[in-house]
Each structure stands twice: as structure tokens, then as C-alpha cells.
Amino acid sequence: MGPQTLYDKLWASHAVHVEDDGTTLLYIDRHFLHEVTSPQAFEGLRLAKRKPWRVDANLATADHNVPTTDRSLGISDPVSRTQVETLDRNCAEFGIVQFGMSDPRQGIVHVIGPEQGATLPGMTVVCGDSHTSTHGAFACLAHGIGTSEVEHVLATQCLLAKKSKNMLVWFDGKLPRGVTAKDMILALIGEIGTAGGTGYAIEYAGPAVRALSMAGRMTLCNMAIEAGARSGMVAADETTFEYLKGRPYAPRGEMWDRAVAYWRTLHSDEGAHFDRVVRIDVSQLKPQVTWGTSPEMVTTIDGRVPDPKQEQDPVKRAGIERALEYMGLEPNVPITDIRIDKVFIGSCTNSRIEDLRAAAEVVRGKRVASNVKLAMVVPGSGLVKAQAEQEGLDKIFKDAGFEWREPGCSMCLGMNPDQLEPGERCASTSNRNFEGRQGPGGRTHLVSPEMAAAAAIAGHFVDVRHWQ
Amino acid sequence: MEKFTVHRGLVAPLDRANVDTDAIIPKQFLKSIKRTGFGPNLFDGWRYLDVGQPDQDNSKRPLNPDFVLNQPRYQGASILLARENFGCGSSREHAPWALLDYGFRAIIAPSFAEIFYNNSFKNGLLPIVLDEAQVDELFKDTFATPGFELVIDLEAQSISYADGSKRFAFDIDPFRKYCLLNGLDDIGLTLRHADKIKAFEERRRQEQPWLFA
């Protein structure tokens, strides 16, 4: 067998059965569940009188619908409440471990999995959520699935899948001050487009990726789906092992040593074949800001809103015109002139302790601008929140005029009360700027935590590289 | 799952690229714990002039007359013609559920986002990829011809104009085709390999016991 990519290795080590046309039965090591995409799957199991194949491979939490304000009051929206209670009932009935709304470990499913060490190198990880790609940061094959597949995994511990092609994204150089993993992934999406990764599994590599913390790597992998790739991944190294050691679900003692010995093989071999290679020099990278309604509609902080007249392709031109109309933006306006109404720091992309520390550093001793109606920080999990409070980050945010909230998906998609009003403009650390994503008529600009924090203080976008 | 063999239907053109699943079925409707009833809220943000809520009587809401599915000539459409990267974004299977519940059985586009593509097959909704030029031609003919219908024959892997004037061939994975033609339940198929899964799992338990703690 010739040299293999990390993806080739992960795929081969999980293939249970292969059909003539290459359709493969893939064994799934870890299945995460949340309240939105699981009820119909559990209902399907019940109707077919099936049981979960391997209960201990599953871990559940409620994150999309949960309020980020005082939880002692429960969930006021009866439809949301029913969904969360349905997850409680299903987990109890089938014996699945759940970090429920009042559990201190509750949080966004893609934050708590790694945090608990329930995501380990070499695993296949799936969840009924497209941002499951996040877990690929741990040298996992991790991707989102639909509800029929949630039921399939519950019932069989396997998925039917076809192998993707291999794409290598090589990040060279050293990140300048004020430029982050979020800017790396937004720049990549700007370059290859939101369908650029369709049909590929992306491996992120190169010195700039090696230098990232696990939080940064998770941000990169999280948004692989926004580049069209279901999965993104990073080879395992000392940073990976350091992060995992001592976590509740991680192996211990002699078992840890055995695991690490295996995990050290989880990288692409020298000379492995990639079907596509993209190279980006991060030393030239600037903070990124999206201006439109697709993550590929992105530019740099010193850039301007594009002019549709400059676009030759009629479908693209119509897309830009529609986006500018929705976003309430005029062509050629400098990005730094765009004033904002709300700021959201959170989501499975950017709500980890490192993200909160970086944002807190920017706002320390300053005040949120008077035109900003709401600036909120939503930690990714109860444990991130507790850690941040121990470090006094909550105080820094609150002193600056931010609201400090309970963990959940919150305003990334606004299934709970955290939403934009029609026409409101938000600097957001989340992953999607689709029409209506953060609330009907809401206008989303995707940025890094540092850039969102600086925008909150200035009231408009500013270049955080020059922040004093 | 309902079988898909031959389908003849009216075509509706949705002429924009990167239609995401948030647009197909907005978040507020994902709170349902059922698989059915999403049709009235398909493309809710584009289709109505007000903001929809779950459990609302949609028949009384103001329609956006400019939205293509509200135009009289496309009423009863069961084939959706779309642009590249259709179904991008969230993995919500509510998107194919909503399209099916509305009455669509097939979608034709130059490319689909992978999770959406996959989810469609699991529900008997056929996503067909044609090349960009063919899709352009279909858009042109749909706009130009009131009552424009296509006949999709899955066994033959062909799309024909109802008047027989043009015919396009399309590709599909043999396994997916087999499942769709026969309306087969994936789980039942997979469980035929239960012994293989058990053997694989046992080997894994020996080699990487930390995964089974």
C-alpha cells in the first residue's frame, strides 16, 4: 500500500463492508445528539421496535433551543420546551447519557464533546448537525448527518457513505497580531467559494496550523462545511495530546500511552496523493469581514463593499445585487464605515475559553459604543463559563457593557429568544450569514472574536491589528 | 420510503445560486418533533410577506406575489429547477421533508451540497445533477413554455420533455438508484450485515479498548 492521507487512514480503518459501487458501511465510534435533529429518529426507532446498537457510543445535550438568560425560569416558548423535554424523555427511555439544561457540563454539542474528551483521535464522529466537522481538529473523521442517518447510526452503529476526494489546505507562515484562525478559514472560503470543497474531505496542514491551539484548529474545521466540505481535519500532535490528557472520557494510565502511540500515526504520509492542493500564506493575511449573505462574500477590513457592475457572470452579479439589497449596503463603501447594532460573541465556531480571553483583552477597560443596542457573550459550555468567571473575564465584559449569558447556540441561529430584529446589523463570531439566519431580516457580518469585540467598542468595524 | 420510478410533472424555476437550507425551511419551524407538515412553510421567508411562526394558519398570510412558487403558472409543480450548490448550510433533514410535503419529487441543479443530497435520497426525493449548459437550457425552456413538464425515468436515468422534443441523461450511484427504485429502508439493508458489524466491533474493542470505556 502506498502513502496514505490522514483521511485515507481514517476511512480504511472504519470500513465494515463495501458494496460493488464503492458504497461503504462505515463504523461510527462517537455519536452526538441534540434536541432539534433527533426526535424523529427516536420516533423511527420506536416505530420499528429497534434499540440503539451501542448505547455508550452516544452522548446528548440540549443546545439550540435553550435560553441564555435565567434558566431557573425554564423555557417560555412551549414549542421549544417540548423539543427539549422530548430529548430528556428519549435519552431516559433509551439509556443515553445527556447533559441536560441544568447540568453544569451542558453546552454546545461541538464544544462539550472535545471538552469532555469524548472526541478522540482516530474516531469517526457524527451528529445531526453540519458543524460536526469541528471534531476533525482531533484527527477524526467527523461530519454532519441528517435525521434519517441519526436513526441509522442509533440502530446500526454504522453509516452508508461514499469516499470523498482528498484536499490539502496548506497554511504557510506565521499569523500576524490580530489575525486568527477565523480569518484563515474565512479567507479560504473567499478563495475557493462555498462549493469549493464539495466532494472533498479537507486536511488543514502547514506551520500555521501546527502553531494553532486546539480552539483555533476547531474553528478551522468547524467551517469546513461553509467551504462545501462535510469534513475538515488536522493531524494529531503534542498540542492534541496535551489538550486531551486528563479529560473525563479520555483514556488514563497505561491505556493513555497505548492510545497516544496509535494516535501518533494519524497524519498524512510523506508523498500521499491529494486531488487538490490550496496554499495560503498567513503572514500576508488581514482580518476578514463578510459583507453579504454567503460566507464566500467576504473581504478584508481595509476593503470595500463590492460593486456588482464589476462582476461579469450574470448569476453572480444578480447574487451580489440581491445580497447588497438584503444587507442594506451600497457598493464601494469602506468596511470600516459600516455601523453595527448588535454584537454576538459565541457559537460552536468561537465560544471557547481562548476566544473569550482574546475578546476580553480587546474590551478591557473600555465601553460598548452608544449605537450598539446589545453586545452579548455566550460561552460555549457551562465549564467554559465557569473557567471564564474564575479568570474574571465575565467582569471585564460586564464592566464594558456586554451581557454575560448562559451557554448554548443562541444568536448563531436564533432558535431561542436571542435574535436580531428586521434590519438590525450584527458583528457575529458565528459561521453563517445567510438571509434570516440570526432572525428574520437580520444582517450578519462574520468576524473573529477580536474583531467583534473591537466593533462593539467602536460601534463600527475597525482593524483590530491597530487596536490600542 | 415512497418508491421513485417514473415521474411526470410541472417544472418550477428557482433562479438563484447557493440556496441554503435556512431559506428552504427557516429555523422557527425546526422546533417540530414530527416529519410532516413543513410544506406550508417551504421557503417561508421568500414566500410570505410577514414573518411566519409555527402552528400558524398559513392560508391567511399575505403572499409575496414576486416569489416564483406563488405565480399561478407554477401551481402544482413537482419538479424544482435550481442553480448551483442547492441545499448548502445546515444538515436539517427538514429541508427535504418540506420540499416533499409541498409536493416536489425531484430537483434538478448543476450541483448540490452533500448533506442535502444525501438526505434527499433517504426520503424518496430525487436530486438530479445536470451540467450547467443543460440547466441553462431547462431554465430558458421553462420560462418560455407555460405548463412546461418533464418526464423523469429513474430506471433509464433520463429526463425527457413531455412533448418528446429533448432528452437528457443523468448519472446516479447504482446503490442509491436501487434503494430509490424499490423504496428500500437503509436500516433494514444495513442490518443484513449485522454479523459483520459485530465482528468489526469486537476487533476494534481488542485493538482500541479506550474507545469502549
Task: Compose a concise summary of this entry.
Chain A is of the alpha/beta class. Chain A has helices spanning 6-12, 39-47, 78-94, 109-116, 147-156, 181-192, 207-210, 214-222, 238-244, 253-263, 314-327, 353-363, 382-390, 393-400, 449-458; strands spanning 15-18, 24-27, 30-33, 58-61, 97-99, 124-127, 141-144, 158-161, 165-172, 200-205, 231-233, 276-281, 288-290, 298-300, 342-345, 374-377, 403-404, 425-428, 443-446.
Keywords:
heterodimer; A: 468 residues; alpha/beta; five-stranded parallel β-sheet; B: 213 residues; seven-stranded mixed β-sheet; 15% strand
Layout of SSEs?
The complex is a heterodimer of chains A (468) and B (213).
Chain A: H1 6-12, E1 15-18, E2 24-27, E3 30-33, H2 39-47, E4 58-61, H3 78-94, E5 97-99, H4 109-116, E6 124-127, E7 141-144, H5 147-156, E8 158-161, E9 165-172, H6 181-192, E10 200-205, H7 207-210, H8 214-222, E11 231-233, H9 238-244, H10 253-263, E12 276-281, E13 288-290, E14 298-300, H11 314-327, E15 342-345, H12 353-363, E16 374-377, H13 382-390, H14 393-400, E17 403-404, E18 425-428, E19 443-446, H15 449-458
Parallel strand pairs in A: 3-4, 3-6, 4-5, 6-7, 9-10, 9-12, 10-11, 15-16, 15-18, 16-17, 18-19
Antiparallel strand pairs in A: 1-2, 2-8, 13-14
Chain B: E1 6-13, H1 21-24, H2 44-47, E2 79-81, H3 94-102, E3 106-109, H4 114-121, E4 126-129, H5 132-144, E5 149-153, E6 158-161, E7 167-169, H6 174-182, H7 186-191, H8 194-207
Parallel strand pairs in B: 1-2, 2-3, 3-4
Antiparallel strand pairs in B: 1-5, 5-6, 6-7
